[in-house]
């Protein structure tokens, strides 16, 4: 791999920053990383099993990012950089800055340590066919030491934006023309990244944001979903609630999980620290966990710091937003997603929202591809986007 001289010099200065873990694939950080946010510190070829079909150069990089928990200092973060095959267009490949959905909070769950799921492989392969390279951050605490601060909007945004800075500065044949794209947790991360970008990364040429299954929490919406009848054998939202609490425990020493979860849910809470999402989902199913039998009456009050960290800094995005929602989404209930559409539209964001009839959280991802292709073509070419703030199932 070829580095720019300045980046190479900095990488030599911080060469001792990261060590690859022998068992989990995690990377341990030194106490005092030096450099600047968006600085590459190491790079290696991505294993063939971990890249995308028909890809060209594929890398796993480590770079420095601002600590999103504290808003200052630097932490190492890992990411994947995957380029299409063939000759790049004039100026280089434009970039999809990919924000992944929930994988867990443990380092071994990091996307760059695992093969792509069949759904995401198909989805991102379509973006590569459109002529985009993929830069996908793992997020702070995934692939690196510590617990991932799950759904922390500032963490996700800083990590995504810094991953693109690092890739542009060090990987040849990339172009500073960027689509921010994310699903589920990553849908929220994509929105957050677009919201933070004008002040945190003003030099990045972001054209638009594509989000599916994106969460949005207000006290009113939280009360709405928490007090809804919950007689199902299990509630998939419990998986995310367990991760949210585990993420909070990693940086809030005053947090007491017993103040959020009942005794029935505590074994799953403890397991969430190490189980990746499919394994934790199986445990939530096996334990029969739902809001009614798993959450204490004051759970929202005791999760308040984590819920606050989910908030976006602004609802007004400088570039257009595509939102895709499954009508039957049980993982991120449609009222949360449509609440985001309503708030963003009210703030003056150009939003094109779609609701996909009879589709769930997973199915919506690839079903949205034709619509997001048209949206992307418009924003990449500087054309006006047709807004839609009151979508009906289609």
TrEMBL record:
Keyword Signal set for record: yes
Signal peptide start and end residues: 1-28
The UniProt record lists the keyword Signal: yes
Membrane-traversing stretches: none
Keywords: Signal
Protein name (database record): Signal peptide-containing protein
Organism: Acetobacter oryzifermentans
């Amino acid at each position: 791999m070829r580095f720019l001289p300045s980046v190479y010099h900095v990488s030599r200065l911080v060469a001792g920053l990261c060590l690859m873990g022998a068992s989990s694939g995690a990377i341990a950080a030194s106490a005092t990383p030096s450099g600047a946010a968006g600085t590459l510190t190491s790079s290696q070829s991505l294993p063939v099993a971990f890249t995308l079909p028909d890809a060209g150069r594929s890398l796993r990089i480590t770079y420095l990012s601002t600590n999103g928990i504290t808003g200052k200092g630097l932490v190492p973060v890992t990411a994947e950089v995957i380029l299409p095959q063939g000759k790049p267009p004039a100026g280089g490949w434009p970039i999809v800055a990919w924000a992944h959905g929930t994988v867990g909070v443990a380092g071994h769950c990091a996307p760059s340590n695992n093969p792509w799921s069949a759904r995401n492989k198909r989805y991102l392969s379509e973006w590569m066919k459109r002529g985009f390279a993929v830069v996908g951050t793992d997020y702070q605490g995934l692939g690196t030491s510590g617990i991932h601060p799950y759904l922390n909007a500032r963490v996700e945004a800083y990590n995504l934006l810094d991953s693109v800075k690092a890739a542009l500065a060090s990987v040849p044949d990339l172009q500073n023309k960027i689509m921010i794209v994310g699903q589920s947790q990553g849908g929220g991360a994509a929105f957050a990244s677009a919201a933070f970008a004008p002040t945190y990364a003003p030099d990045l040429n972001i054209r638009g944001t594509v989000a599916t299954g994106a969460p949005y929490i207000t006290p009113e919406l939280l009360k709405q979903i928490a007090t809804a009848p919950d007689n199902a054998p299990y509630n998939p939202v419990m998986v995310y609630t367990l991760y949210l609490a585990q993420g909070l425990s990693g940086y809030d020493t005053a947090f007491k999980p017993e103040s959020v979860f009942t005794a029935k849910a505590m074994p799953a809470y403890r397991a969430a620290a190490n189980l990746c999402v499919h394994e934790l989902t199986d445990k939530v199913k096996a334990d029969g966990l739902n809001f009614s039998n798993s959450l204490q009456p004051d759970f929202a009050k005791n999760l308040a710091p984590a819920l606050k960290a989910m908030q976006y800094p602004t609802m007004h995005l400088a570039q257009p937003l595509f939102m895709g929602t499954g009508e039957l989404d049980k993982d991120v209930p449609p009222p949360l997603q449509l609440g985001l559409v309503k708030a963003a539209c009210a703030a003056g964001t150009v939003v094109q929202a779609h609701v996909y009839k009879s589709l769930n959280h997973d199915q919506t991802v690839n079903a949205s591809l034709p619509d997001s292709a048209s949206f992307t073509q418009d924003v990449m070419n500087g054309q006006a986007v047709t807004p839609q703030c009151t979508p009906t199932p289609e």
